[in-house]
Amino acid sequence: MTLLILMIVAAMAFAFWSASRAAAERAEAVGRDACRAAGVQWLDQSVHAIGLRPYRQESGWLGFERTFRFDYSINGEDRHVGKLVLRGDRLVAFTGPVTRDPSTLH
């Protein structure tokens, strides 16, 4: 019985870790695309998770809303912070470099 509980807990931990990595990869792609579209330099080539909170999905199930930050530079000598919020794999909030055509962010 103990082994079964341990296996269930391990599977849940792996599923959470896998979903977190997928969200980080999605956030990285969105941040990189936003910087490219705005013509600014994306710094450190990474995003950093700064928040995690539960939310209720449209289906009624609980999901996680993850907040990430990234750094970018306009002229190569400055540093600015961008932030994006993902619910699942859907972008729901973005603060960062702006582009003339916001529809290029997906």
TrEMBL record:
InterPro entries: DUF3301. Pfam families: DUF3301 (PF11743). The keyword Signal applies. Residues 1-22 form the signal peptide. Keywords: Signal. The keyword Signal applies. This is DUF3301 domain-containing protein. It comes from Lysobacter arvi.
